[in-house]
Specification:
With 555 residues, the protein is an alpha+beta fold. The protein has four domains: 2-53, Molybdopterin biosynthesis moea protein, domain 2 (Alpha-Beta Complex), CATH 3.90.105; 59-161, Aldehyde Oxidoreductase, domain 3; 166-311, MoaB/Mog-like domain (Molybdenum Cofactor Biosythetic Enzyme, Chain A); 340-511, Alpha-Beta Complex (Spore Coat Polysaccharide Biosynthesis Protein SpsA, Chain A), CATH 3.90.550. The chain is built from 16 helices and 30 strands. Helix 6 packs across helix 7 (242-249). It comes from Ancylobacter crimeensis. Pfam families: NTP_transf_3 (PF12804). This is Molybdopterin-binding/glycosyltransferase family 2 protein. Keywords: Magnesium.
Length: 555
């Protein structure tokens, strides 16, 4: 591949190495230069530009990335279409990600032009989540490099789907252990299992005694439990302690006690026949990520756990800086509340509206986007950042006179994730987080925004706040700054819903009683329905005011 400066007269068919924006010219990096583009550049006074031209034997970046990625996916993995030399690999089902680390290293060692990045091995994933990405660095690779990369490529990523569905839980009791502790542990554990499609089919509360533990384990297995979780009233201190002694008395085998993960050191892994049995550490009573999760999810996916597996968890096992753990030096207002910015996404083309700029369409006399932004301005969230993309001047006009900050997303056509990245990137450093609003949701009120903001508590591990009604999650959503790195890794026309699932232990549900968190305006019919809704609302308000006046006169 030839790369470097090209005179315009020799650049026809070459690939632009850099973006060029001039009046009437919007040349994107990676675009193939044609006669019309080169003529426009010449008229603008450009005489040369940096470009790349493929030579015989070179393999274009998209083809190279697609062919390599096609060989990497095992069960539960699919590859997206190639774009700009990149192919994202995604999970097709929920489970635990299995990675051939040696294979990944070998592929990355082939040549600097070929890269593969993945999520950590054995991380729980959900359907649709990006688990890896192949990126070709230059615009093309030499044929020899391509052939060596293909030779090194093999199935390196797979998803072990969750298999265990029926779980039994045993809670031992000692005087002084509050009922609410057992109740919370039951609730937290049920939520942990729910994410993997499993449930607690049987729960036994017993005395803290080895004989009682043995009887409870036997009963759980007799009830067809596929896994048994034991929460002792007192932490396991030794292999001869009450819980392990009870497991052995039930005919079980102790596989490993202790683990090099903190929190989670006092985990016990055992087995009764084919049924895994876990003696939970005290930290497993909390929804926060801990060593218990490292083993639980693998067992739920049917992956084997032995002494060497646990012994190998030490690197990365110090979980002091995980997102869900309180961090030092959290930013705070003087009254101790979190400082939250508002990000209003107003970049989309609104193609379902059938022609007019959706966000500039009027609803009850005001542009749709202005209603969303005014609600944000009336709340305690600040500053208010508006992300523009399609027809930005129309959005600017619709918001004239409002105290907002604009950030433009030139890549808006690539999907909502690009606008989310642009907005999150503009949040001030001092902010603890951001509430992400959609510009086409006219019923979202300042009151709802304030309730969501108030629910966020980063120092307490509450990192995501979502409005919920009858089990359905809506918008807007508040995100703590600690989750920003995950938000900005999103790609394509994919929102952040899977991140909510992935951070379920840090989620706060904020109940709502009406439709304000669920109504968006995508079509002209939806806009007409909203107009009728507001007319009906005014009629109800006028009627109530008239009744109040009549009551006042009667009094």
């Amino acid at each position: 591949m030839r790369f470097g400066p090209f005179a315009l007269e020799e650049a026809d068919g070459a690939i632009a190495a850099h973006s060029i924006r001039l009046p009437g010219i919007d040349l994107r990096k990676g675009a193939v230069l044609d006669a019309a583009c080169l003529a426009a550049l010449a008229r603008a006074g450009v005489t040369s530009l940096t470009a790349a031209r493929l030579e015989a034997g070179d393999v274009p970046e998209d083809r190279a990335a697609a062919e390599i990625a096609a060989r990497l996916g095992g069960e539960g993995i699919q590859a997206d279409a190639a774009f700009t030399g990149r192919v994202n690999l995604r999970a097709t089902e929920a489970g635990v990600l299995v990675v051939d680390s040696a294979g990944v290293d070998a592929l990355n060692a082939v040549d600097e032009a070929v890269t593969l990045a993945t999520l950590p091995a054995f991380r729980p994933v959900v359907a649709g989540e990006m688990v890896g990405t192949v990126k070709i660095i230059p615009f093309a690779v030499e044929g020899s490099v391509h052939r060596r990369a293909l030779a090194a490529a093999r199935p390196m990523l797979s998803v072990a789907p969750y298999r265990v569905r029926r779980v039994a839980m045993i809670s031992t009791r000692l005087p002084g252990l509050a009922d609410k502790v057992v109740a919370k542990t039951l609730r937290v554990t049920a939520e942990r299992l729910h994410a993997a499609g499993a449930g607690i089919e049987h729960h036994a509360e017993i005395t803290h005694d080895a004989g009682a533990v043995a009887d409870a384990v036997r009963e759980a297995i007799a009830r067809s439990a596929e896994m048994v979780l034991i929460f002792g009233a007192s932490a396991i201190a030794d292999r001869r302690d009450v819980v392990p002694a009870g497991i052995v008395a039930a005919g079980g085998e102790l596989l490993h006690f202790g683990m090099p993960v903190d929190p989670g050191n006092l985990l016990l892994v055992a087995q009764c026949g084919a049924v895994p049995v876990l003696g939970a550490p005290g930290c497993a009573r909390s929804p926060r990520d801990n060593g218990f999760d490292r083993v639980l999810h693998r067992l739920l996916a049917g992956l084997a756990i032995d002494r060497s597996t646990i012994a190998g968890m030490g690197v990365g096992g110090l979980l002091m800086e995980i997102a869900t753990r309180p961090q030092p030096r959290e930013a705070r207002e003087p009254d101790g509340t979190a400082r939250i910015a508002a990000v209003v996404l107003a970049a989309g083309r609104g193609t379902r509206m059938g022609g007019p700029n959706k966000l500039a369409s009027t609803l009850d006399g005001l542009p749709l986007v202005r209603r969303a932004v005014e609600a944000a301005l009336a709340s305690q969230a600040a500053p208010v950042i508006v992300v523009t993309g399609h027809e930005p001047e129309r959005v600017h006009d619709a918001l004239a006179g409002l105290d907002v900050r604009f950030v433009h997303n030139p890549a808006y056509a690539e999907g909502i994730s690009t606008s989310l990245r642009a907005g999150i990137g503009a949040v001030p450093e001092k902010s603890d987080g951001a509430i992400v609003l959609l510009g086409d949701m006219p019923r979202v009120s300042a009151g709802l925004i304030d309730r969501l903001v108030a629910a966020l508590a980063p120092a307490a591990g509450r990192l995501v706040a979502v409005p919920v009604r009858e089990g359905r999650r809506g918008n807007p959503v508040v995100w703590a700054r600690r989750l920003f790195p995950e938000l900005i890794t999103l790609s394509g026309d994919v929102g952040a819903r899977h991140l909510i699932v992935a951070n379920a232990e840090a989620l706060v549900d904020v109940p709502v009683e009406d439709d304000e968190a669920f109504v968006d305006v995508d079509t002209t019919d939806a806009l007409e329905r909203e107009e009728l809704h507001r007319i009906a609302e005014r009629a109800d308000t006028d009627g109530e005011q008239a009744l109040d006046a009549m009551r006042a006169e009667d009094a």
